Amino acid sequence: MKKSLLALAVLGTFAGVASAQSSVTLFGIVDLNGRSIKNGSTTQKQQVSNSLNSNRLGFRGTEDLGGGMFAGFWLEGAMNNDSGEGTATGGGQNWQRRSTVSLGGRFGEIRLGRDYTPSFWNTTVFDPFGTNGVGSFLNTAGTGAITTATTYVRANNSFGYFLPGNLGGLYGQVQTSLGEGVDANKQTSVRIGWAGGPINIAVSTGKTDLATEYTHNNIAGSWNAGFANFMAQYDTQEAGAAERVMYLFGVVVPVGQHELKFSYVNSKGDGPLNGVDADQFALGYIYNLSKRTALYGHYAQIKNKGGAAFVVGAGPGNATNDKSTGYEVGLRHSF
Amino acid sequence: MKKSLLALAVLGTFAGVASAQSSVTLFGIVDLNGRSIKNGSTTQKQQVSNSLNSNRLGFRGTEDLGGGMFAGFWLEGAMNNDSGEGTATGGGQNWQRRSTVSLGGRFGEIRLGRDYTPSFWNTTVFDPFGTNGVGSFLNTAGTGAITTATTYVRANNSFGYFLPGNLGGLYGQVQTSLGEGVDANKQTSVRIGWAGGPINIAVSTGKTDLATEYTHNNIAGSWNAGFANFMAQYDTQEAGAAERVMYLFGVVVPVGQHELKFSYVNSKGDGPLNGVDADQFALGYIYNLSKRTALYGHYAQIKNKGGAAFVVGAGPGNATNDKSTGYEVGLRHSF
Amino acid sequence: MKKSLLALAVLGTFAGVASAQSSVTLFGIVDLNGRSIKNGSTTQKQQVSNSLNSNRLGFRGTEDLGGGMFAGFWLEGAMNNDSGEGTATGGGQNWQRRSTVSLGGRFGEIRLGRDYTPSFWNTTVFDPFGTNGVGSFLNTAGTGAITTATTYVRANNSFGYFLPGNLGGLYGQVQTSLGEGVDANKQTSVRIGWAGGPINIAVSTGKTDLATEYTHNNIAGSWNAGFANFMAQYDTQEAGAAERVMYLFGVVVPVGQHELKFSYVNSKGDGPLNGVDADQFALGYIYNLSKRTALYGHYAQIKNKGGAAFVVGAGPGNATNDKSTGYEVGLRHSF
Questions:
Q1: Rg of the Cα trace of chain B?
Q2: Residues of chain A contacting C14 with CB distance shorter than 8 Å
Q3: Would you call A99 and B331 a contact, using CB atoms and an 8 Å cutoff?
Q4: From CA C52, how far away is CA C252, in angstroms rounded?
């Protein structure tokens, strides 16, 4: 996820205002692979984006306002490069991965716009598969009443505050998003964590004003033992009486340019979703040709029971009470 | 609205053609706020783009062709950053704010593509609120027969000519746009003005080939008294017998990094729109953190009568024969 | 089609991996004209994109991985600049002209994503009008059973291989694209050619798994005699019993900054399309103001018979068994 820096020429200075030191960055990721998905007894060969990292195109920049203050913007959109579309779901390029303007200083950062929710961010930081590809933690995250929250990953019309970076390892953020007449967009979420030496641990909680209030809680951490980085998380989503409880155990083992990854995810339903359960394991191998370019292979399998129909990737089959298995070999290039 | 300049490497020169000195500029504005709109008796809290300046993303560049000649392009699209969309109305990024190619020289500039109409440009230059936010002149500009002109702001398939910049303060432009089978796109417009010392004054007239021909006339000017810049305009739109007559009085008072803004707009209907009237006043305060970054606050109110239902901002209520009131506090960052 | 180079700052180096020398390029073309189309007896005046070259906006880059290896990406989308749309057919900017990630080296290049098909590429390289504008070879390329192949120009989900550039003038590529459940996207194509001195010659063949298998074959070549570059091609498309056979003869004559172009295209149907024939001639003049900027004029006419209704440009008339005539005068600027 390296960046190209465009030199910014400030063509003049505002009367009485300090001149700005600034940069605008163009950045992106093109990640494509060959994938085979077997849901139940049906197999399909595919070419897919977003498997090692999420495909993206973006522009971002910061301006030094003096006195420790800064302003910044961030425009980042998804891409489906297998078909040349500028979104994850078809259509032209947009900036729905992140579209924000910020004002920051010693007090932290205030951020407005469309952004990740704090409660989601906790799940993706502590996943060896980064919520991407056939091994993603998200594969078994939602079904039935639990899938109705459009704010699971990101929120529109959000106002966020981030703690400053100098609190001795303590970090945190709080976010609230306006519904503008749509309850499903009305969300509040908070995240707090601590990172020091080999340890990183964080908790998050968020709620959305659905007809039945939707709540998402997560506690997660990682321990970098040097030869390997171990990760674990415990995650619950509630929508009225319906509940989904998940835990993850994962590990990333770097060996020079190589990386080995493993994760196990257990996903259990409760209330109306009682018994709608699945577990998933995933194996990955990454060969880093450079910091920006990697070849990778992933293999993952989900076992569904109690009516669950989770899949490691979209395809024509049906995995209800059955297995979903997938593997993919691809190339990720970032700029 | 500052710009980042990308160095352009011309990788060779055409046989017999002078080498080009060139630049390509990436530019944009992200402007987001918290807004409260009360239309009639209903209030809604919102996060909104486009309130101090119109949100945008663009690329533009010029090439020096030698002998005073130049070629250039301009691609500029809107953004709804509160939801990450690349247009003002949803969907992917496009270049519908301006999408042109130009050839210029001592004779002036010839410009092809989608562009502002001259008749609109007169209204936005002489408005303290720049046609943006709750205080925009546009809020009371159209209803009934008058709203049918899609060419009020911009035109597709346009051919334009601009006078050169060395005519002792005289400036002007003429534009015609092809309908390609759609009368509502068939438009011709002209604008001429003079700027010298503290004075800037301009007139414009445009017509569009609707079933009932649509005409838009504007005369406007500003006088910069140093401590304050005063603006006024008189604007008429006609569609058959229907007419809307508007005038604006505005002032901008700069105080160091601060700016105070005020405008009053009177909008009267005539013919079938007789008595469909409104007036609007708007107050604004801008704190310029730098040339590129500003905090701002706006307050505006419209009073409708005779069946008018103009609003300072979209929302769930109904302002027919009632007030529409809004305020917004936001952050604008340009790059 | 010159490019602006953005300096790429690699912000660190991966442990054990050579640092990258890299660049990201922003590039594009804005080409607009005034056009008159007469189909049968109906004439329309238009402003049109894509007439000398296809309008486009893109980002591309390569990374030197050391040892002759490289990685690269290419994002290129169409634009309709007469209306500011970021595609050829309306809607936001996408990257459907090309959207690929590559890994290359002494062995050649492996390319994944959406890309031109090899069988199409042969037709466009050997056309004086580059498959653009009123004189395009494509005008008479498809009707009836032959128009059903969505893979005629480009393919989604493609895996391609290109020969390396050091084979003494021999070049070639092979591509296969996955259907992912849609037969019309399942395509395989190969192209091989040789360029040396004034000669360039290439053959291509491709097939798509439609209900009736679709095949596209092309053999083409050019001979640059110095004062003029002569081009010819022979092209067949088959869909079951239906067939379209085309040949082209063309010439480009450069005179300093000027270029004169001529092409003649003959298009014959066979099987169910027997007698559905047309021929087209096209004249062009280009005045290169610089390597990047050109003024141009094109004139072309199609004569249809046997029920053919080919047109030199879209418009309101009907050219069945009649003539379609068009001319256009425009400005192309590339960056």
A1: 21
A2: 257, 288, 290-291
A3: no
A4: 14
Interface test with C, best of B24, B186, B188 (most C CBs within 10 A): B24
Residues of C in contact with B16 (CB under 8 A): 256-257
Secondary structure percentages of chain C, helix, strand, coil, to 5: 5, 60, 35
Please tell me the predicted confidence (pLDDT) of residue A195.
97
Instruction: Give me the mean pLDDT over the B212-223 stretch.
Output: 94
pLDDT-based confidence at residue C89 (cuts at 50, 70, 90): low
* Cβ–Cβ under 8 Å, residues B166 and B172: no
Under 8 Å between Cβ of B126 and B221? yes
Q: How far is A30 from chain C (nearest CA, A)?
A: 6
Instruction: With H, G, I as helix, E, B as strand and everything else as coil, classify residue C121.
Output: helix
From CA B270, how far away is CA B273, in angstroms rounded?
A: 5
Helices (H), ranges, A74-141: 118-125
With CA atoms as reference, the chain B residue closest to A24 would be B4
In the three-class reduction of DSSP (H, G, I as helix; E, B as strand; rest coil), residue C284 is classed as strand
CB contact under 8 A, A79 and C77: no
Query: Closest Cα to residue C327, out of C55, C33, C66?
Result: C33
Q: What is the pTM of this model?
A: 0.93
What is the pLDDT averaged over residues C310-329? 96
- pLDDT value of residue C22: 63
Q: What is the ipTM of this complex?
A: 0.91
- CATH tag, C28-55+107-334: 2.40.160.10
B29: closest CA of chain C, how far (Å): 18
Task: Write the pLDDT tens digit of every residue in A63-118.
Answer: 999 999 999 999 999 999 999 988 766 679 999 999 999 999 999 999 999 999 99
Cα(C35)–Cα(C135) distance, integer angstroms: 12
Compute the nearest-CA separation of C266 from chain A (Å): 33
Report which listed range, A123-137, B15-29, B80-94, C62-76, is most confident: C62-76
Instruction: List all chains that touch chain A, counting a touch as 3 or more CB pairs closer than 8 Å.
Output: B, C
What count of other Cβ atoms lies within 10 Å of the Cβ of residue B7?
14
Q: Report the SS3 class of residue B90.
A: coil
Euclidean distance between CA atoms A105 and A119, whole angstroms: 24
Chain B CB contacts of C257 under 8 Å are 14, 16-17
Phi, psi of C111 (to 5 degrees): -135, 130
For A262-286, the pLDDT digits (tens) are: 999 999 999 999 999 999 999 999 9
Asked if C290 and B17 come within 8 Å (Cβ–Cβ), the reply is yes
**Cα–Cα distance for residue pair C287/B69, rounded to 1 Å:** 14
What Å distances lie between residue B45 and A179, A331, B328, C23, CA to CA?
A: 8, 45, 10, 45
Beta carbons of C2 and B14 less than 8 Å apart = no
Question: Between chains, do A75 and B91 touch, taking CB under 8 Å as contact?
Answer: no
